[in-house]
Design brief:
Number of strands: 5
Shape: globular
Radius of gyration: 19 Å
Order of helices and strands: EEEEEHH
Largest sheet: 5 strands, antiparallel
Number of helices: 2
């Protein structure tokens, strides 16, 4: 019987869902504590076309779903992470390119 060799599977991270969202009207907020104990307040957004409630990272502008109890755990895990920094750099480059193109 021949030996079967299985190659290791490299798991790639899933691409983050890109939401299109609008600020809830009337404005609603939720909050969480950062590592220093300071309260961070977040506006609550609604995904366009659904009733899904989202919060936005103030560093990189990505949206994250609120949990059923309005927990911001997804945002707290993301906030200040490597992914957050990379997304901020990508967004900053897009804004700079848009600004440069508008001057042409």
């Amino acid at each position: 019987m021949p030996l079967i060799h299985y190659s290791p599977i490299l798991l790639m991270p899933r691409a983050r869902t890109r939401y299109i969202a609008v600020l809830k009207n009337p404005v609603e907020q939720t909050f969480f504590q950062d590592k220093t104990g300071a309260l961070i307040y977040c506006n609550i957004y609604t995904e366009v076309g659904t009733d899904k409630e989202l919060v936005q990272c103030e560093v990189c502008d990505l949206y994250f779903p609120l949990q059923g109890d309005r927990s911001t755990s997804n945002l707290r895990i993301h906030w200040g992470s490597l992914e957050c920094g990379k997304e901020k750099e990508r967004r900053d480059k897009e804004k700079l390119n848009a600004c440069l193109l508008s001057k042409i």
